[in-house]
Design brief:
56% of the residues lie in helices and 5% in strands. By secondary structure, the chain is mainly alpha-helical. It folds into two domains: 1-105, no CATH class; 144-237. The protein is globular and about 55 Å long.
Length: 237
């Protein structure tokens, strides 16, 4: 639940930007903010549904949601609370989860990189120019990527494609991250590589097996279709 709080706040902030939140909805925002404050030191299963740990992505996405709420309603008293809590959370994450190379690492005791760590930067946890955002993008290009296919993370010493398929959601997020840095050609390369990784029906699953050229996992995968549309819109601007 704690990890989901940041995503809930992002959704509620988007609703506020479109004038869709009433006072009842703002009570839900207040409850979510309070839950993040009260449980910020608790481990969770993360975005990957893994074992309970202090996942860096979960902690950073809470920062993202808090900043989004503060920006969407700057005149509300809650905005100052959200900003202060976001700063506190970010400071704590930086003390424990910033790799010596400058990129975000998976957990305080796992120095590897995870493609999920691109999401907070794309969604606004830090500015696009932040060195940590850029270093995390560079680390994702180096480590869990191969021939413009991006994997969630490196499981072990096996080649990436032997552990699991390329994660389609991650590939489109990579395109968004490159676009955010002004690297439009590189963003288009990622987008086109993944745009073709669909089935004959035009639907996308969770993963793509690059060796057998086939889809893996749940089909259709709604999140993949959503970020495909977002990436297409961004690149078309």
């Amino acid at each position: 639940m704690v990890a989901a709080g940041g995503w809930r706040l992002l959704l509620l902030a988007a609703a506020e930007r479109h004038g869709r939140l009433d006072e009842g909805h703002w009570k839900a925002v207040e409850i979510a903010v309070r839950a993040i404050a009260d449980r910020r030191r608790q481990p969770d299963a993360g975005i990957r549904e893994l074992s309970d740990r202090l996942w860096t992505h979960s902690r950073l996405i809470r920062v993202t949601g808090l900043r989004a709420v503060a920006a969407a309603a700057p005149r509300r008293p809650l905005a100052d609370t959200c900003t202060a809590l976001a700063d506190t959370l970010l400071d704590a994450v930086e003390r424990t989860c910033l790799h010596p190379d400058g990129h975000w690492q998976r957990t305080p005791d796992d120095p590897s990189v995870d493609a999920a760590l691109l999401l907070p930067g794309v969604r606004g946890a830090q500015p696009a120019t932040d060195p940590r955002t850029r270093a995390t993008l560079a680390a994702c290009r180096r480590e869990p990527a191969d021939d413009h296919f991006l994997y969630r993370f490196r499981h072990d010493e096996r080649p990436l494609e032997e552990a699991e398929g390329a994660f389609l959601l991650c590939g489109f997020v990579m395109a968004l991250a490159e676009h955010q840095q002004g690297r439009t050609v590189e963003a288009s390369r990622w987008f086109e590589r993944y745009r073709g990784a669909c089935g004959g029906s035009g639907l996308y699953a969770e993963e793509f097996d690059i060796a057998q050229r086939r889809l893996r996992g749940n089909l259709p995968q709604a999140f993949v279709h959503a970020v495909l549309r977002e990436t297409a819109a961004r690149l078309g601007e």
